[in-house]
Amino acid sequence: MPIIHESGYRRRPWYFFNRHLETILPSIFNKVDGVKYERERLELRDGDFLDLDWIKEKNNRLMIIGHGLEGSTERHYIQRPAKYFSQRDWDILAWNSRGCGGEINRLARSYHHGETGDLSFVIDHAIQSKKYESVVLLGISMGGCQAVKYFGEYETDERLLGAFTVSVSCSLKDTSDAAENNLRGFYAKVFLKKIKENIEEKAKMHPELRNVDLTSINTFDELHEQTTLKLYDFESIEDFYESSSCGNYIENIKKPVFILNAKNDPLLGPDCFPYNQVEDHPYVYLETPRYGGHVGFTIPGKEYSYIELSAEKFFDQVIFQQAPSQTSEKQS
Asked: How far from chain centre, in Å, is Cα 122?
């Protein structure tokens, strides 16, 4: 399927004059009004739970939305598409990874970019309800990684039609390096601070976490060495990055999947742009605008972003093979 060389995202707001502002300012200041979720607690087979946030409008198609690292369904980049698509004949299921729904999860382990078991359980739960004729995924950042990897791992139900993904870390090692090197390590410091706070809180419940030396964790490798490898039984850092990077699963994808990655994304390195893998792929699309930042793609003067417009076009023209939606607007 095509690499989209002529991106529809051509003009960022004038005051977002570098990639860091494109990434950070929307995260801080963007607010979404009018989103009202109905929460469901989904019990998992291992004794843990997930918090699912629904918008139910009695539609026959469902969009499942996954958030980024240390995010939740309350983040603007989740609420915005939830609002946009719920107003366009979609039911919405926005799901929180373990421990991200406002209450600490029960087990010592929580989630990571390559953990698709929980996503699979959410999808099965939605499909088994038999309420929906069509189901799609919308994955943002880590949620996009999980969606891409899922379609490369699982034999999917016929009602699960495809996925639109944004700011996807196709190579987790590249993303770790970018987070630690760009803006003097600002991004890594922000994420690691939140993760270490969560570990400290969970250590009160789980003795196996009390031996983690949080003061010695200053890089993602150090984090994974002390926590991820032990909790998820990876053999090494190399094994974790290799088996968890969604780019390694692209060749196995058999349903339409769209990847939207900005070339100036401060959290994506060279291997996060899988041009060679996608060029002759029968199902995967890749669009790499010059601008956009990480989960940015802001459109001046609009409450929605290029993410929603591009996803809507993909679902209409590819997933459902329909003419362009009459509700879509071109970026001016």
From this structure: 15
**8 near 310, Cβ under 8 Å?**
yes
198/212 Cα distance (integer angstroms): 12
pLDDT of residue 78: 98
- CATH no. of 3-172+246-319: 3.40.50.1820
Alpha helices, H only, the chain: 19-29, 76-86, 117-128, 142-153, 172-181, 186-202, 220-223, 229-232, 237-244, 275-279, 306-314
The CA distance from 300 to 14, in Å, is 8
Enumerate the domain spans of the chain: 3-172+246-319
The CA-CA-CA angle for residues 28, 200, 53, to 5°, reads: 50
What is the sign of the dihedral through the CA atoms of 305, 101, 227 and 219? positive
Return the closest-CA partner of residue 314 out of 274, 259, 261.
259
CB atoms within 10 A of CB 226: 18
**What's the confidence (pLDDT) of residue 330?**
47
Residue identified by tokens 């995260």 is 27
Instruction: Report strand pairing: 49-55 vs 38-43.
Output: antiparallel
CA distance 314 to 325: 10
Reply yes or no on whether the pLDDT at 322 is more than 60. Answer: no
Question: Is-contact 331 10, C-beta < 8 A?
Answer: yes
Q: pLDDT tens digits, residue range 126-181?
A: 999 888 999 999 999 999 999 999 999 999 999 999 999 999 999 999 999 999 99
d(CA 312, CA 306): 10
- Per residue in 223-272, pLDDT (tens digit) is 999 999 999 999 999 999 999 999 999 999 999 999 999 999 999 999 99
